């Protein structure tokens, strides 16, 4: 997984200048958020479901070694093959090898953030194999050389007129309508031939059941079921944290996930497969269990809860930062609040130090998370790590000076009087919009309230003495 190529503030400033992007994001996130609130309110036991989801995921991480071995044995007992991948290179090598062994020059893919994380499409292309994205939004991005801006709705930053123009240039010459039904039909005609001729399918996994070796994929279009049933060979790439202990545990997540993601009571398509069966679906199943930094995340008692994520994207839709900048500003396949805590842990905090600061700490992400990930707490935890890694002498000296000043009432009062006078040239319209170096970084992305010309203590003494 690549680290962001530029700091978040730099990328965000560029994205904020795109008025069409902001309009698209506002309309989409408001619509999803309103629908989600309505379907969640239908359940009297929603908070109990959230707690159950949190407890199941915590148990999985606490006993992950046991559940992984159990899952491997169950998959093998069902006729599947399990491959362990320490990083992206090993995972990609497995998929390439399987495709080559079956003479495939094309593979059809279900939408999978995990395969985006390891850049599987690029690895396949390097081996002369074309990966065809079959999810409608992922297809749009692939045709335009774009990349995902949202966990659930990858093309959320594109409107239907833009999509119509793209299709006219690529897969549907002559299309003039931007009606969603006509756009869907154009994609359906293009993809149907790909499905019928595919020799290898590639999927991710929403959940893997340890006790049975069952793999579960949920989606809304039916393309996932075509990819996982029509090709004679199926390769599933699954992050090691995606396990649940028992088949019964799926009941909890199949209620939490659709309501939190697409604001539906149930998924239109929930596909489950266990091993292989003669004459039914793929006759060869490969499961790639991917680490790629997850065991490093697991070692952090605070940060490990990021691995609870079920990729619902609810936190993105309520985040005031994400809804204005979009996903590209995060420089990662995991955008928004969950990306701000997951990406730095997967790639190393020193390579993504700006992401934990891409938040207002309003707490809305925690309130909507279906598995109760305390994202604000993890953000603060990672900010502390980022500051420690940076090891700024000036910052340490400033904190020591502040501590010394706050320790004395007299020193603090003197500092207030000095600051109130020194700030006068900087105040414009009741705000300080730009501080001089070395404090300029603070006002680069925020306005600063000026120090009051009269402190509360002085006012009290004057009025009540």
Quick rundown:
This protein has helices at 8-16, 19-40, 46-62, 64-77, 88-101, 113-117, 120-126, 136-144, 160-169, 180-197, 223-229, 250-261, 294-298, 314-318, 322-325, 336-347, 364-368, 375-390, 393-406, 409-422, 440-443, 456-464; strands at residues 81-85, 106-109, 130-133, 200-203, 207-209, 215-219, 233-239, 243-244, 269-273, 284-290, 427-428, 431-432.
Fold blueprint:
Layout: H1 8-16, H2 19-40, H3 46-62, H4 64-77, E1 81-85, H5 88-101, E2 106-109, H6 113-117, H7 120-126, E3 130-133, H8 136-144, H9 160-169, H10 180-197, E4 200-203, E5 207-209, E6 215-219, H11 223-229, E7 233-239, E8 243-244, H12 250-261, E9 269-273, E10 284-290, H13 294-298, H14 314-318, H15 322-325, H16 336-347, H17 364-368, H18 375-390, H19 393-406, H20 409-422, E11 427-428, E12 431-432, H21 440-443, H22 456-464
Parallel strand pairs: 1-10, 2-3, 2-4, 4-7, 5-8, 7-10
Antiparallel strand pairs: 5-6, 6-9, 11-12
Textual characterization of the structure:
With 465 residues, the protein is of the alpha/beta class. Among the domains are: 43-292, Rossmann fold; 394-464, no CATH class. Helices cover 50% and strands 11% of the residues. The termini are far apart. The protein has helices spanning 8-16, 19-40, 46-62, 64-77, 88-101, 113-117, 120-126, 136-144, 160-169, 180-197, 223-229, 250-261, 294-298, 314-318, 322-325, 336-347, 364-368, 375-390, 393-406, 409-422, 440-443, 456-464, and strands spanning 81-85, 106-109, 130-133, 200-203, 207-209, 215-219, 233-239, 243-244, 269-273, 284-290, 427-428, 431-432. The model has no long low-confidence stretch (mean pLDDT 93). Strand 5 (207-209) and strand 6 form a beta hairpin.
């Amino acid at each position: 997984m690549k680290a962001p190529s530029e700091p978040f503030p730099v990328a965000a400033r560029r994205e904020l200048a795109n008025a069409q992007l902001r309009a698209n994001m506002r309309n989409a996130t408001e619509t999803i958020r309103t629908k989600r609130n309505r379907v969640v309110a239908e359940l009297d036991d929603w908070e109990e479901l959230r707690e159950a989801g949190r407890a199941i995921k915590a148990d999985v991480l606490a006993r992950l070694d046991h559940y992984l071995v159990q899952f491997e044995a169950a998959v093998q007992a069902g006729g599947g093959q399990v491959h362990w991948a320490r990083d992206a290179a090993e995972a990609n090598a497995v998929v390439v090898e399987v495709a080559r062994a079956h003479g495939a020059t094309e593979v059809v893919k279900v939408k999978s953030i995990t395969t985006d994380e390891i850049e599987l499409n690029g690895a396949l292309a390097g081996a002369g194999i074309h990966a065809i994205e079959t999810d409608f939004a992922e297809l749009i991005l692939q045709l335009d050389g774009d990349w995902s801006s949202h966990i659930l709705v990858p093309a959320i930053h594109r409107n239907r007129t833009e999509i119509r123009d793209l299709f006219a240039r690529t897969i549907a010459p002559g299309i003039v309508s931007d009606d969603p039904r006509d756009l869907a039909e154009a994609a359906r005609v293009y993809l149907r031939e790909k499905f019928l001729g595919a020799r290898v399918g590639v999927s991710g996994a929403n959940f893997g059941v340890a006790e049975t070796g069952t793999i579960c994929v949920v989606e809304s279009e039916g393309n996932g079921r075509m990819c996982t049933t029509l090709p004679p060979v199926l390769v599933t790439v699954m992050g090691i944290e995606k396990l649940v202990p028992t088949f019964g545990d799926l009941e909890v997540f199949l209620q939490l996930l659709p309501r939190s993601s697409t604001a539906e009571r149930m998924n239109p398509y929930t596909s489950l497969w266990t091993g292989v069966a003669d004459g039914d679906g793929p006759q060869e199943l490969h499961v790639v269990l991917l680490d790629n930094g997850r065991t490093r995340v697991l070692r952090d008692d605070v940060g490990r809860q990021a691995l609870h994520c079920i990729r619902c994207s609810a936190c993105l839709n309520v985040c005031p930062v994400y809804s204005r900048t979009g996903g590209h500003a995060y420089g990662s396949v995991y955008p928004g609040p969950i990306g701000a805590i997951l990406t730095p842990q997967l790639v190393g905090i020193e390579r993504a130090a700006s992401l934990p600061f891409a938040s207002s700490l309003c707490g809305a992400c925690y309130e909507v998370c279906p598995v109760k990930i305390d994202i604000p707490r993890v953000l603060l935890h990672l900010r502390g790590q980022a500051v420690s890694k940076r090891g700024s002498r000036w910052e340490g000296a400033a904190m020591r000076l502040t501590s010394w000043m706050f320790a004395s009432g007299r020193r603090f009062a003197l500092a207030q009087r000095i600051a109130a006078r020194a700030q006068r040239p900087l105040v414009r319209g009741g705000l300080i919009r730009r501080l001089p170096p070395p404090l300029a970084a603070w006002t680069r992305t925020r306005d600063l309230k000026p120090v009051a010309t009269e402190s509360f203590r002085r006012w009290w003494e004057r009025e009540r003495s």
